[in-house]
Amino acid sequence: MTIQEKQQDIIDEFSVFDDWMDKYSYIIELGAEMPALDSKYQTEDNLIKGCQSKVWFHADYIDGKIVFEADSDAIITKGIAAILVRVFSNETPKDIIDADLDFIDVLGLKQHLSPTRSNGLLSMLKQVKIYALAFSNK
Amino acid sequence: MIDIEKIRKDFPILNEKVYGKSLVYLDNGATTQKPQQVIDAICECYAHYNSNIHRGVHFLSNKATDIHEKSRETIREFINADSSEELIFTAGTTESINLLAYSWGDFCVEEGDEILVSEMEHHSNLVPWQLLCERKGAKFKYIPFDDNGVLSSDFDSLINEKTKLVCVNHVSNALGTINPIKDIIEKAHAKGVKVLVDAAQSIQHIKVDVKDLDCDFLVFSGHKIYGPTGTGILYGKKDLLNAMSPWQSGGEMIETVSLDKTTFNVLPFKFEAGTPNYVGNIALGRAIEYVNEIGIDNIEKYEADLLKYAHEKLSSIPSLKIYGNAENKASLISFLIEGTHPYDIGTLLDRMGIAVRTGTHCAETVMQHFDIPGTIRASFAIYNTKKDIDDLYEGLLKITKMLGL
Fold first, then answer.
1. CA dist., res. B167 & res. B198, Å (int)
2. Does B340 sit within 8 Å of A75, measured CB to CB?
3. ipTM
């Protein structure tokens, strides 16, 4: 499945909710379902700056693809991280760098993108792209 | 008695919709909303008499200067200072404290001296003193508080002949505790130590009388008392301010300048370098008049009732823990919901149109005391009602259900 197909899947899943509470309940569910990040990866280095909650992103480079794992001490943030992990994990650095991020807007999560929200979606996306750039040089 | 419906009509922002819902604004500790009277005062100045103050010989400049100084007089009367010379207009609490830390601090603090700060200070009343201590080789000490959020009563045992200043807030922005500052000042003065009171979270809620308190310095921000942003006051006893050197220089604070020497203007202008925020300062005067029209005693009574109601209501949520359980509290509740991060609660409340603050509230030492990442803070102002608290309560019930608690 391509990044775009995964994004479309998530958009379809979200499209059934017309109420914001249902949408957030689903984000919370996604957060709860994502396995906890091994504590050895919950390091200062993996911590994403600029978030009110703590968010860790860990990346491995396996057979030309990046595998992301993430965690957060806030459940909504963890849910949003889970969406990003699902979309970008197991993809090549090039595909991640080239990926369109319009789906954030379509999901109605755009308000989380503002740098002043200090919830880290923007920082998480930046971190994903930075990992992709770093691995693309390997 | 307070006519709450009439008051609410004064604040146009309360009619705003957030995500299509009526705004419930409970983030007054961060900033208060502005009544139409204050908004009008700003517009009127720009539309009818805008002109740089203390400078011109012309009509408008004189008019603006008169109104600006009348505003200072209104604020003087409000805090019961002896003289309007004792009131310096600043950009806010943070600037007031930095001015003091540089001007008074550089002048009065030497290597080996001690500054005593409470453990529950906002960073603005902590970091400038830490930096001063670093610059001077002085010792930074703190007054601890207990788990109810009450400052140690035997704090004066921390005062010795090296102590130069005690810095303490009147009301804690993170816990809501009203500190016994009159008692603190009395004990400090008995040992010859000066006291700075940070009134940023008290000035809008309870009577602040600098003469009764006998504080040496007192600071607050205009935007937390229904005034505009970028305004604030540094009050200081006249002899202390006179002894201090200017901090920033240029503009109206100068008496004469030659290439050999510059002499400085008298108080309060000595500390007001550059063109002051005169439009803001004038509107701050109007905000204080607005508070006077309602009466600070009435505000205090009304908000105490609101706080009591909020405490009762929120305490009834089993998973909710309130941080700050001092007997004397003013107008805010800090809390956590077990098993959740404050950020989650704040985000979900926001979607319900309820504005609260989450995080450390620029008081990380308070969070470290309790070993928590932050709290959710609901803070009240004169236009809040029991219905706002009911909305918060209902919102929290919905959220706990949503999170499966």
1. 8
2. yes
3. 0.88
Mapped onto helix, strand or coil, the DSSP state of residue B358 is strand
Which residues from chain B sit within 8 angstroms of residue A124, using beta carbons?
Answer: none
Say if the Cβ atoms of B402 and A24 lie within 8 Å. Answer: yes
B33 located within any domain? no
Residue type, A5: E
Using CA atoms of A43, A49, A51, A53 in order, give the dihedral in degrees to the nearest 10: 10
Please check whether residues B305 and B356 belong to one and the same domain: yes
3-state class (DSSP) for residue B191: coil
Facing A74 at nearest CB: one of B19, B344, B402: B344
- In this prediction, residues B142-157 reach a mean pLDDT of 95
pLDDT value, residue B135:
97
Kindly list the structural domains of chain A, giving each domain's residue range(s) and its CATH number in brackets, ordered by start.
3-136 (3.90.1010.10)
The string of pLDDT tens digits covering residues B245-293 is 999 988 778 888 888 888 888 899 999 999 999 999 999 999 999 999 9
Give the global pTM: 0.94
Is there a contact between A53 and B348 if contact means CB atoms under 8 Å apart? no
Per-residue pLDDT, A119: 56
Going by C-alpha positions, the residue among B115, B213, B109, B234 that lies closest to residue B163 is B115
Nearest CA in chain B to A120: B343
> Is residue B19 less than 8 Å (CB to CB) from chain A?
yes
Q: Does B330 have pLDDT greater than 70?
A: yes
Query: Are the CB atoms for A101 and A125 separated by under 8 Å?
Result: yes
Residues of A involved in catalysis: 51
Q: Which domain holds residue B237?
A: 39-293
In terms of DSSP H, where are the helices of B203-277? 210-213, 238-243
Considering the domain architecture, whether residues B179 and B254 belong to the same structural domain is answered as yes
> Do B105 and B186 sit in the same domain of this protein?
yes
**Domain finish residue from B228, B258, B293:** B293
- At residue A116, the pLDDT reads 52
Answer positive or negative: Cα dihedral of A50, A55, A60, A65. negative
- Kindly state whether residues B263 and B318 are assigned to the same domain: no
pLDDT per residue as tens digits for the range B292-301? 999 999 999 9
